[in-house]
Amino acid sequence: MNSLERYDLHMRPNEQFDGAIRWYSPLEEPFQVSGLAWFAQERKYRRLPTSPAQAIPQAVDHLANHTAGGQIRFQSDSSSLSVRVKLRGIAGMAHMPATGQCGVDCYVSAPDTNARWRYVNTTRYDHTLIEYECALYTGWEPTMRNLVLNLPLYQGVEEIWIGLDEGASVMAPPGYASGKKIIIYGTSVTQGGCASRPGMAYSNILSRRIPLEFINLGFSGSGKGEPELAEIISQINDPACLVVDYEGNCVSTELFRKTLPEFIRIYREAHPVTPILVVSRIRYAREELTPHLYQMRMERKQFEQSLVNELREQGDLNIYFFDGSKTLGEDFFECTVDGQHPTDLGFLRMADALEPVLKTLLL
Description:
Elements lengths: L2 H5 L13 E4 L7 E3 L4 H4 L15 H6 L7 E6 L4 E7 L10 H4 L3 E5 L8 E5 L8 E7 L7 E6 L6 E9 L4 E2 L9 E6 L1 H4 L10 H6 L5 E6 L8 H8 L4 E7 L7 H18 L5 E4 L11 H23 L5 E4 L21 H18 L2
Parallel strand pairs: 11-12, 11-13, 13-14, 14-15
Antiparallel strand pairs: 1-9, 2-3, 3-8, 3-10, 4-7, 4-9, 5-6, 5-8
Helix pairs in contact: 7-8, 8-9
């Protein structure tokens, strides 16, 4: 125990529950794993197919093992909830908490409904370990609840087990509004860097407000709009909407002018009328002090806007542009951990801005 933990009990890791626990695998019914588009076929906690038909960059293949956007959904009347997790690696990022990188957090709502989600707790553990067990709550009234566990944003999960009271009832979660999925392709910001816990990634915030499955395909530093990724993303059935938000990884404006039209063209061949929302990046915190950052962002935003206008003029009335520079508000410089990756405040504002737009597209 370090000195701070001796003085402040709330700074200690979660303790393990010492009551009678039955451990369940989310691979089994009635648990539902969502947010991982190929999970039903492969039964792996991974965001892309294990052996895609198209060759993909090594970095993307590695990052696909990170479980950003993955959720475990179920209902139970258990008075306690614990998780046991085996990660692919330890937490080690310089500017993102271990709770966001490798943790699991929990939300509850009334049974048989997806409304009024309430945050419960986050796994806090010795971040030098790759295996941990934590109690998320104990001693609650044994009444039926709808539960969601958000999986780690920046690490892979080899195994996860859910601990409930011996004799507790376990039921399937309530269904989504439909079988359609909201797919978000993008960067480290999409993946959730640098949220303090998984539930604060903007795709997870939106999933609590819009009763559809969200597929997070943010690849940190590596969402570059390759045609192979467009082909793979096109394989996801029943898309409600595709959000394209990879400007921050585009390498150069010149390359962006080549990749974005081709990415959209490939996706359109497979999904002719699915709404596509092209989102420009959030503002850099220091861009008012560093003019070239502002100029670069404006150049790319203008290209995205003009491309969408051109495609609409050509008859594609289901493609839209969203100005991401406005999402963080007037004090945008207060919303990141390092000038470009949002804090929880930044992610909350992004979700607030995107929610009404997505709801309009989904009508």
